[in-house]
């Protein structure tokens, strides 16, 4: 992936497209955990892809490409939420493959009633398997704050179960 980032930074649009293909599921899951409908999620992702391509030369560490893109996406989602306050329920968080449909439904059910702060941390930790340190970097909060949000999210999920 690091080589693809370097190629994309040198203007290779095909390499950037491949990077996006690699990250697309994670970007969608994060967008859907912050936003409440597919249209807003698609808008946020589209704006993220454009901003990412325009500012790719600003990325100092190619190994953090995915983290950097998720941070941009979270900011774009926040912009959309500021513009439109009405919230609908979380409809789906896709997982690749038909065999994971049941796990996808269970995951969606577990996090749909969580508060926004806990929901995004739970989605990144359990949905995308990011470490506490990585989530801390993505959300620009302390590792202790991530742990606290995970603990709160788990308590809320236990109440749900």
Give the helices and strands, then pairings.
Elements: H1 2-9, H2 13-34, H3 38-54, H4 65-83, H5 101-111, H6 116-127, H7 132-139, H8 143-160
CATH class of the largest domain: Mainly Alpha
Approximate shape: globular
Radius of gyration: 16 Å
Strand content: under 5%
The CATH topology of the largest domain is: Rna Polymerase Sigma Factor, Chain: A
> Uncertain segments of ≥5 residues (pLDDT<50)?
86-96
- Classified in CATH, the superfamily of the largest domain is RNA polymerase sigma factor, region 2, helix turn helix motif
Structural class: mainly alpha
Order of helices and strands: HHHHHHHH
Q: What is the level-2 CATH architecture name of the largest domain?
A: Orthogonal Bundle
> What is the share of helical residues?
over 70%
Tally of contiguous helical segments:
8
Write down the overall mean pLDDT: 80
Summarize the main sheet: none
Distance between the termini: 39 Å
> Can you tell me the number of structural domains?
2
How many β-strands, per DSSP? 0
Structure description:
By secondary structure, the chain is an all-alpha fold. It folds into 2 domains: 1-85, RNA polymerase sigma factor, region 2, helix turn helix motif (Rna Polymerase Sigma Factor, Chain: A, Orthogonal Bundle), CATH 1.10.1740; 98-161, Orthogonal Bundle (Arc Repressor Mutant, subunit A). The protein is built from 8 helices and no strands. Helix 2 packs across helix 6 (116-127). The longest helix has 22 residues, at 13-34. It starts with a helix and ends with a helix. The model is unreliable at 86-96 (pLDDT under 50).
């Amino acid at each position: 992936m690091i080589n693809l980032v370097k190629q994309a930074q040198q203007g290779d649009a095909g390499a950037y497209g491949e990077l996006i293909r690699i990250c697309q599921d994670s970007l969608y899951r994060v967008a859907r955990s912050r936003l409440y409908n597919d249209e807003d999620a698609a808008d946020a992702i589209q704006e993220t892809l454009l901003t990412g391509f325009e500012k790719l030369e600003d990325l100092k560490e190619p190994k953090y490409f995915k983290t950097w893109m998720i941070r941009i996406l979270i900011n774009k989602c926040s912009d959309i939420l500021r513009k439109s306050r009405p919230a609908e329920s979380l409809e789906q968080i896709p997982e690749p493959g038909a065999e994971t449909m049941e796990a996808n439904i269970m995951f969606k059910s577990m996090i749909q009633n969580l508060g926004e702060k806990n929901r995004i941390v739970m989605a990144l930790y359990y949905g995308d398997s990011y470490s506490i340190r990585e989530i801390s970097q993505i959300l620009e909060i302390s590792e202790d704050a991530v742990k606290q949000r995970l603990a709160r999210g788990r308590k809320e999920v236990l109440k749900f179960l």
